[in-house]
Amino acid sequence: MSFNGKFELQSQENFEPFMKALGLSDELIQKGKDIKSISEIVQNGKKFKVTVTTGSKVLINEFTIGEEAELESPTGEKVKAVVQMEGDNKLVTNLSKIKSITEIKGDIVTNTMTLGDISYTRISKRI
């Protein structure tokens, strides 16, 4: 299944506790919690470019499945990581202390990030 497309955040669970666990300030958490981000995924074989626009903040990660890449974490930290594909619809990686799983089913992309015992889930729909 292709990941190509633009997706708008529809809902999220555990945003505040997850961001607190990452060390973000209450002010940044309050600013970010209600912003609807847009994710654009461009897949060309095993190469991916993921652009997430949240308000004025733009995060861009480019990687090739199975190869080490420098990725930006939700806190802005640059981390060397390897993204693996499970099946044809799931991307899995570890960003320092965060395990990230991104799964596409039809027009829905679900991203779950886990830090310790806190999981933060984002559900986005193709636009």
TrEMBL record:
Q: What is this protein's function?
A: Binds free fatty acids and their coenzyme A derivatives, bilirubin, and some other small molecules in the cytoplasm. Involved in intracellular lipid transport.
Q: Which GO terms describe its cellular component?
A: cytosol; nucleoplasm
* Family stated for the protein in its record: Belongs to the calycin superfamily. Fatty-acid binding protein (FABP) family.
Q: What is this protein called?
A: Fatty acid-binding protein, liver
Give start-end ranges for the coiled-coil region(s): none
Compartmental location? Cytoplasm
Domain commentary: Forms a beta-barrel structure that accommodates hydrophobic ligands in its interior.
Q: Does the keyword tRNA-binding apply?
A: no
Concerning Pfam families, the annotation shows: Lipocalin_7
Biological processes annotated in GO: cellular response to hydrogen peroxide; cellular response to hypoxia; fatty acid transport
Q: Where is the Cytosolic fatty-acid binding proteins domain?
A: 5-22
Q: What is its main location?
A: cytoplasm
What's in the keyword line of the UniProt record?
Cytoplasm, Lipid-binding, Transport
UniProt superkingdom: Eukaryota
- Which SUPFAM superfamilies does the protein's record reference? Lipocalins
Primary gene name = FABP1
Question: Which PROSITE patterns would you find in this protein's record?
Answer: FABP
GO MF terms, alphabetically ordered: antioxidant activity; chromatin binding; fatty acid binding
